[in-house]
Structure formats: structure tokens, C-alpha cells
Amino acid sequence: MRILITGANRGLGLALSQIGAERGHHILAGVRDIHHSEERLTNFDYSKSITVLPLDVVNEESIVQAANSVKDQFGTIDAIINNAGILLERDKTIEELDIDQVQRTFDVNLFGPIRVVKHFLPLLMMGDSSSIINISSEAGSFENAYGGDYAYASSKTALNMFSEQLSKYVKEKNIDVYSVHPGWIKTDMGGANAPGNPIDTANGIFDIIEKKHPIDSKYVFINQKGNPMPL
To answer: For this structure, is 156 an active site residue?
Structure first.
């Protein structure tokens, strides 16, 4: 399969690129700065299966150019993993929030995936059995609300809603849409104390894309193992 991954140069995105290539897929690794990303993405044994693609999720023209490039080179894609995300204003109370940073969070975490899907969906629709994976978080769950991380949590709740809406829109096109909680994993965002490994999460996400296990969930919000997440 030919799979687009945003934010592919570090953390979970890097693990997804590595595991996807090792599993025999062709990875289109979307990165903001290609010059600072190629070395990380070309150190794998299967790095020949990775095409580094300039793509900034907050810049729609960048996404248009990336989609046109992929269309010209490859014609179609089989999956999108909207992985790019940020966590800002982490320890701020509501009184302390910088609204510009809140808006930036939504620009990356919500509007970024919307922009990517807007311009790559036509390439995805050419396939026979495709997938869209939006990387979400348990922070976006109403049930798990904890009175903090206002910008991040709210953006992920909105991403879950976008994923549910999108699933309804493409259900007749044989495209699966999931909003996936990746678990608490050791990345720049998750921190060194996180119990999970991004490689394990990446394997779980590719199991979902490869349809290795049936997904039994009323809604599209699931975890990396394919189990339903509480709304």
C-alpha cells in the first residue's frame, strides 16, 4: 500500500514510517522541513520504501503542491495517517491561556487533518479499500476530562467529531475512518516516563490499516489495539 503520514520525522510519525516500510508499504513521509528530516527517515533498512514529501499541515498551498506531486508520481494512495500534532499551554489554567497558542493548536491538530483530507481524498478514493487514521488522544474524551490541557484536549475532541462526520461521508466509498488514541508513549510529547513504546503503537495502527483484526466499535474513536474508546 502507498501510505501518507504527516509529521513523519519524529516521535510516533517516525515509528510509523519505519514500521510501514518494514511491512512492505511505500511511505510518503510528510514533513515541514525536508532538509532536517531526510537523515532520520533514510537510516532504516527499508528506507528505499520511503519518499520524503514536503508538507506543512498549516499551509494549504503546501498541501496542494504535495497532493499534486503525489498524483503526478504515483496516481493514487491507499491510506492517510494524520499524525502531525502539537501540545501547547500544557500547565496553564484557563485564566492563563494564551489564546493565540490555542488557535495555533487547533490549526495543527484539527484544521491540519481537515486540509490534508480535503486535498488527498480524491487520490484515496481511487483505491479499492482505503483508510484514514487521525491520531487523537484520550484527552479528547468527555468521560476522561481532567480540567487541563484545554487547547490540546478540545482540539482532539473536535478531531474525533470530524472523524465521525468524515466516516459517514465516505462510508459508500469503502474507506475506513478511525480516530485513534495511540496510548501514552515515549515521545517528545509523551515524555520519558511514558510506559508505552511508539514502535508497538505503530504496529497496532498498521494492523488496523491492514485489517488484521475486526473492529467492533459503534463510533470511530478507538485505541491503537482497535478497541473502543470512551466518548
So the answer is: yes
Domain that holds residue 156: 2-223
pLDDT value at residue 127: 78
Of 142, 84, 78, nearest to 111 by C-alpha is 84
Burial of 59 (0-12, 13-18, 19+ CB in 10 A): middle
What is the number of structural domains in the chain?
1
Question: Rounded distance, CA 156 to CA 172, Å?
Answer: 26
Question: Is the pLDDT at 178 greater than 80, yes or no?
Answer: yes
CATH number at residue 109: 3.40.50.720
Catalytic residue of the set 46, 150, 152, 225: 152
71, 92, 156, 171: the active-site residue: 156
Q: Is residue 231 part of a domain?
A: no
Q: What is the pLDDT of residues 81-129, one digit of tens each?
A: 999 999 999 989 999 999 999 999 999 999 999 999 999 999 999 877 8
The string of DSSP letters for 82-144 reads E------STT--GGG--HHHHHHHHIIIIIHHHHHHHHHHHHHTTSSSEEEEEE--GGG-STT
Decide if 156 is inside a domain.
yes
